[in-house]
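2024-03-11 09:14:02 DEBUG pipeline.ingest accepted 1 chain
2024-03-11 09:14:02 DEBUG pipeline.ingest length=111
2024-03-11 09:14:03 DEBUG pipeline.predict start
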Amino acid sequence: MTELEVVDLVIGEGKEAVKGALITTQYRGFLQDGTQFDSSYDRGQAFQCVIGTGRVIKGWDQGLMGMKVGGKRKLFVPAHLAYGERQVGAHIKPNSDLTFEIELLEVLTRD
């Protein structure tokens, strides 16, 4: 996998994710073999981040742009847009392609 693949599972109708927005999501992350390595649902806490500014992996920065609140998206993230050659935790090996299922709950912008 060399390119980011974005699949809309549900098209949202709320505010759109734009560069610099603070977004609130629920997500699950999977390895290529289908093993779940992370889930905000399991932690019982939504995940917040600023999008489009390098605070999260490039696959998220690129893959969540234009997504609207209420939407659900699946991102197939090649290793170079994820963690690259770094080992992350016990499960994510170097050069791992990752898949995320992401639900966009809120978008906050400075307007």
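2024-03-11 09:14:41 DEBUG pipeline.report Strands lie at 5-10, 22-31, 36-39, 47-50, 72-77, 98-108.
2024-03-11 09:14:41 DEBUG pipeline.predict end
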